[in-house]
Amino acid sequence: MFWINNRDYDTWHVTYDNSLILRPRSNDVSLEIVSPKLEVKNNWEAEIDKVWEAVNDLFRVAQNSISCGSHIHVAPTARYFSLHELKQIAMATIIHEDCILKILHTTRRNHEYCRPNTSIEGTGLWYDFGQWKHRPGELQTRRVGLRDCNQALMGIRSKGELVAYMQGDDRRSLWNFRNVLSGETGTVEFRGGRHLRGPVRTKRWVTFAVLFVDFATRSPYMENSCMPQYVPPQWSSHNAMTEELWNDLKS
C-alpha cells in the first residue's frame, strides 16, 4: 500500500502548495496532487493513468520545475510496520544511500526538502557514520562507522528512538520515518522523487519506493552475521553494487 503525500486517504484531490517556486511574471499556480490509499494488489496503475488524463485535460503542467518533487508513502496493509521491519528499512537506506542518489534527478540530490539522512547533523546516524561519510578520505573510519550504525540500530528499543537516530526532528530527509510515531499515518516516506509530469514517471517512482521497502523488510541487515561493507561511489565496484541492488528489487 502507498500514499503519495496523502492527508485524507479516501479520494484524490488537488491542493495549493506554497513551497514551490514560480517563474517571475508567469501565470503559473503551484499545486499538489494528493492520492488516496492505493493497494498494490489492485490495478493502481490504471487509476494513475486516469488521474493524469484528467490533469492534462484541466491544466498545463509546467516543464522542468526544479522546486517540484514527489513524495511516496509506503506502509503494510491493515497493520503497522514492526520495529524490526523499520530497523531493516533504516539500515537498507543507509547501505544503499549512494546507489539511490545516483538515480535521483540532479534537482533532487541534496535538495533542502530531501536531504540524505546521513547528512543531517546532530543525529546518532551523523555521529556514527555521516560525519565520516561526508568528509574527504576517512575510508577505514567510514567502514567502521557503517558497522556502528548496524549495531546502534540493533540496540534501539522504540520507534521514537529509531526516528531520532535516523533524522532527529527533521522531516525533510530523503527517507522520512517520522510518520511511524504514535498518532501518525504509519508510513515510511520516500521524498526523493522528481517533478512528475505524467503517468509513466509516476508509476516508475511509486514502483521503486514500494519495491525498495519490500526488499528491505526481507533483507538480512538486522542479523548478527551481517557485516555491511562501505563502498565509495567513485569506485568501479560501486556500479556492480548498484546493479545488484536493482536486480534484487526486480526479483
Word description of this protein:
The chain is an alpha+beta fold and 251 residues long. The protein has one domain. Helices cover 42% and strands 9% of the residues. The chain has 8 helices and 6 strands. The strands form 2 sheets. A 4-stranded antiparallel β-sheet has the order 1-4-6-5. A two-stranded antiparallel ribbon has the order 2-3. The model is unreliable at 1-6 (pLDDT under 50).
Write the layout of secondary structure elements.
Blueprint: E1 2-3, E2 13-16, E3 31-34, H1 44-58, E4 70-74, H2 83-95, H3 97-103, H4 124-133, H5 139-155, H6 159-167, E5 175-176, E6 188-193, H7 199-217, H8 236-250
Antiparallel strand pairs: 1-4, 2-3, 4-6, 5-6
Poorly predicted runs are: 1-6
Q: Which strand-content bin applies to the residues?
A: 5-15%
Number of strands: 6
Order of helices and strands: EEEHEHHHHHEEHH
- Contiguous helical run count: 8
Could you tell me how far the N terminus lies from the C terminus, measured between alpha carbons in angstroms? 19 Å
Quickly count the domains: 1
Cα-atom radius of gyration: 18 Å
Q: Report mean pLDDT, rounded to a whole number.
A: 89
Q: How is the main sheet built?
A: 4 strands, antiparallel
Helix percentage: 40-55%
Placed side by side, the strands forming the largest sheet appear as 1-4-6-5
Silhouette: globular
Quick recap of the structure?
By secondary structure, this protein is an alpha+beta fold.
